[in-house]
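quick one before i forget lol
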Amino acid sequence: MDDLKDLASLVEELRAGDLSCLPELMAALKEHSPEAVISVLEAHGLQITGDGNIVGSGNVAIVVKGEFPALAAQLARLAEQTQRAEQAEQAASLFGQAAMLLERGQVRGALGALAKLHSIDTHYPGSAELLQRAKRLRTWRRLGIAALIALGLLAVIWLAWSIWQENRPLECVGEIPVSEKGVLASAAQPDADGTRWWVGMSGGGLETFTAGSSRVSYDSQDLVADTVSALAVDEQNKRIWVGTSGGGLTVLSQDSQQADWRSYTPAASYTRAGKGGLPGCRIRSIYLDGERVYVGALDSDGLGILQSGKQWRVLPPPEGWKEGVYFIAYSMAKGPNGALWVGTNYGLYRLSGNDWSRPYQPPWDTGTPGAVRSVAVDEDGVIWIGMKREGLALYDERLADTPWIGPITTNDGLASDEVEAIALSPAGDGALIGTEAGLNVCRWKGGSRTTLECEVIRVTDLIGVPIHSLTISPEGKKVLVGTADRPLIYSLSALW
């Protein structure tokens, strides 16, 4: 046989069933490459089996081994060589494919190609190292994914916790001590015995008494906390509003002989997200204005307002308020035009409806507005302002050019520049001023009402004593002075 055409003719004869050409096929196997023989056989629909036989489609099956054992052995060797060559080529292709996929970071595809390579050749050079590299990369990938999942879960947990923290009811845990001692708040109301006094103590709860009755005390069992820091009397509805430090707000109804308490706490009415309610647990001031109740707290983000006894809401601080700083309404009083004057930890503001004014800052104070601890408005509309460190100031809107009077300090007769309480004289001729170091009386000088004269009241029990609360009786004849030790009642004429 000189060329493949002769070999093809030979195979065609074999395909037709002429077995006499088998010896010539054996000779052809010696003259042609195994690839050429295999190619011609496959072109005619024939293939060599592992035992050296030739089979084809249809009914073609040439059993070579029985009649021509030498040819069968040669054909078997040829089939084995061909299979090894194909496997080697396939293995090399799979190895290259795995390496390329691994370089691209496609670990799953690379591992799949290496698994196929292993099924063909378990010891293919370099496949073990490539497999280890792929497994390490898969491990790091899984660790990375696990880390991302963990971080994602932590982010979800943190977000859920933050949302819960923002929206969870703020629990009032009970007593939170304050730095002030003694009587922190007082109130008075008409009674059959003349005047019923209400006294709120630091750590001592609430007490009530009249001239002809013994004291009645209420403690944390009724109030949640023993420090009473704010009081207001609702005479029309026969209720006492009691603000505590740490226990929120409690209302005592006097409609029946037995005390009927109702507590307002953030846990019952308020969320930190500002959905409406009591502003905090540490109540500092209460102001009753008809059907509306205003409440200030030491741990508040705004001013609490209760409308018609139904819905609480928190009015945000004035524009420009320092972010992250509590809005503390220390004292409130209503002016003649219906506006509410609010003394805060950063100056005096006026509230008209839901609109805050700019801070009312005395011209002599050019820095950050200081804390205003007490506010009172007299019958002429003059605003009396007790400041934490700057003494006493007055503001009269009628005096357009020079509305400010003051500052009135220790240089002008005050016992201390730390003013804590103001009680206006029923006669309209001045006010009692409670300070950290005693009690003052300040009177208008002359008829112009532009100048005040202040002097320290030289009563033994009041000299140098912190005064945190002042309340004048409904008939205007007596005054309760809340000291750092106990409540003291004096005739107003004796002090004036």
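fyi The chain has a mean pLDDT of 82.
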